[in-house]
What we know:
Blueprint: E1 4-10, H1 22-25, E2 29-36, H2 57-65, E3 77-83, E4 114-120, E5 127-129, E6 137-145, E7 153-157, E8 162-164, E9 170-173, E10 186-195, E11 200-210, E12 221-224, H3 233-245, E13 249-252, H4 263-271, E14 291-292, H5 297-301, H6 305-311, E15 321-325, E16 328-332, H7 348-358, E17 364-368, H8 387-390
Parallel strand pairs: 5-11, 12-13, 13-14, 16-17
Antiparallel strand pairs: 1-2, 1-3, 4-6, 6-9, 7-10, 8-9, 10-11, 15-16
Amino acid sequence: GAVSLLIRGESDDAVPFESEQSDVTSRLMTTTSVTWTPPDWTVNNEAALAERTPNLSAIVQEIINQPGYLQLNDMAFVVSGSSGARRANSFDGSATGAPLLHVEYYVPTTGPVAFKHPQDADPAANQIPDLAPAGTLVHITASAKDPDVTDTVTYSLNDPRFAINSSTGVITRSGTGTLNAQTEPSINLHVTATSSDGSTAAQDYTVSVVPTTPPQVLYRYAVFGDYGDTDLSGEKAVSAMVHAWNPDFILTIGDNVYAPQTLDAAVGQQYHDYIGNYQGAYGSGSAINRFFPTLGNHEYEEGNVTNYLNYFTLPDNERYYDYQIGPVHFFALSSNKQEPDGRSSTSVQGHWMQDLLANSDASFDVAYFHHTPFNPSGSTATMRWPFEQWGV
């Protein structure tokens, strides 16, 4: 017939059962209980749904929540009823006759892996030179944590030009790909932290790419003019001093020769080792031209312009020209009134220089010529070009 049963648990730790009838009724029971109304049992030794209790997890939860409950404590369930009966045999030593205790449990979950605050454990600026070798620090240390101390966190990132230590989160330059500060001044790195529990977290970091400062190169050059000494005594003294400086190149500001001396005697004899394509009589020249003269009035007045143009191998039309050495763009101008292209700022020569300056990417633009724009002994006003306005 119908039966109504009440199941409760013994709080904290179940004590061993003894023979006294008061053992059950005197025990401290849980306040949580489960009602069980099993149908009639009609088959001996049957273990089916009719013999299965309801879910007792609420009772179990109350027991383990008790302050006195410890790991490996005993747990007991007490079944009582007011009417009807169901006969069940206790375990009598036969394993096949033992009741089945079905237990399901869940390990309390902790939060997933997450990036810390701050997400970067390296306080330095996040940047790298564009020519940095492999292994260079980016100054990013990804920092994530899983609340479960038994879980481990590993790191990965999305850009093969960089490498990340999977354990420490330190990011460095890898040995692949290129960085260009001009076209890509900043790079976004997407870092993924993966916990051993399967959870993941992502964080983006921005890296500034800075141009690599090239090594400084010292360029030493000598400048002199009006040096076409007729007896060469002054020439030789100046040449000895200049060679003692060991300059990388030489530029002159005109009057390279005075009659009756020849260009080869006045210039080649002293500086043939700086003159490119040297064809004179005083030894070998330079593999590349390192001598950059300008025309002075004596070249015109003494008929040496043609000799000058034939003697030197210079850029452009050779009367005026430009060249660049390192970060410096030089403009050798013709300041003579005989210049076919004119010598004013609005002349053909002036427009030529202005156009070149407009497109110059040099750090410095230098102009030099023979006639001084301002001179107490006699100025050449036509050479008062707006050099500063043009960027010289």
